[in-house]
Amino acid sequence: MLSLMIIVYIPRRKEMFSYPKGKPEPVSIVMPCYNEADSIGKAIESLLNLNYPKDMIEIIVVDDCSKDNSAEIVKQYTKKYSNVKLIVNKINSGGAAEPTNIGIRAAKFNYIAVADADSYPEKDALLKMIGFLQKDKTIGGVTGAVLAKNAKTFPQKLQYLEYVVISFARKLLDYVDAVYVTPGPFALYRKEILFEVGLFDKKNLTQDIEIVWRMMSFGYKARMSLDAKIYTITPKTFKQWWKQRVRWNIGGTQTLIKYKKWAFKENMLGMFIIPFFSASLFIGVVGILLFTYLIIRNFLLVYLSTNYSILANEAVIRLADLSLNTSILNFFGISLFLLGSFYTIFALMTMKELSLKNINLFNLIFFLTLYLMIYPLIMINSLYKLSIGKYSW
């Protein structure tokens, strides 16, 4: 994958941040909301402050029966701004798909932006995204660079690194028509295509992945505007992070199962995205099982040989037993760490996100080793929950 990224990057390195110059056209921004009282006000204000004609934007907040005062906060904005509207769902749907669909059906404009209630696009983000839809009628959705906002805790600082690398990689995938997700923090769609493919899937935990795969199965594509930056609040604790990633993995697996029949069909969904997802899942799970086996095996060998040596009154260790020879797994591990470090630092430099308060040697090493090693464990937990049907938003 790193080799592929290099091959894609080199000829296009000067146009990474370029985008089709679009002209303002009316956009309906749909924001699903559930218990977002701490952030919903600032999220609405970030949309109101977009560098975009005010009469060409309507903001539709769909509250999914929040238990806090989210709806009351939104009502204050509806009284002050005529282009802010509130819809309260009759019952809690348990996910973001249904309130999003409700907002889309209520939208009056032909372009639909979907925004999270804890995310904040930069003022020029919408202008840097809409040109993709205006230029090519086969493009159904556009995403931007989703980055971590106010990374204060240690888990958030690790996600800060992760989000930069993901955005950089997603732009490279854009050049091979392989953008496979339009993340919820802020994405732009053509409304007629959303209705054509059937809107967002209410049964999928990652509706922002599933909708892109569905559009691709209909012959449409998604694009990525790297210069359109959207900042989102990330989980503060590892417990919150784990829960979020389990949901992501369950939703991704649901999508993979749903579209398995498209594998190796003659489009990027079948020839690249599905095989890539499947290989990543397989390699991650098998890799962590192999790693666990080797750790347990080596521990047992050392424990048993040490006990035997003590009982037999033999030396526990001899100089002749020491060896500096490395195994092929150690070689690959060191190589991947060095290549991963280079790739991560290069992505940070390219994105101009070298924030010293979020990046230091310890954070980088932890991110490239323990943080990424946790992912296969998350996948195993996700597969278990999916198999027994015990999962929720």
Question: Which descriptors apply to this entry?
Answer:
393 residues; single chain; 8-stranded mixed sheet; 12 helices; alpha/beta
Could you give the order of the helices and strands? HEHEHEHEEHEHEHHEHHHH
Question: Structural class, please?
Answer: alpha/beta
Helix amount:
40-55%
Task: Please tell me the total number of domains.
Answer: 1
Query: How many H/I helical runs?
Result: 12
Major beta sheet, strand line-up: 3-2-1-4-7-6-8-5
The proportion of strand residues reads: 5-15%
Biggest sheet character? 8 strands, mixed
Distance between the termini: 31 Å
Q: Give the C-alpha Rg.
A: 24 Å
Rounded mean pLDDT is: 91
Number of strands: 8
Which overall shape is indicated by the principal axes computed on the Cα atoms?
A: elongated
Detail the poorly predicted runs.
none
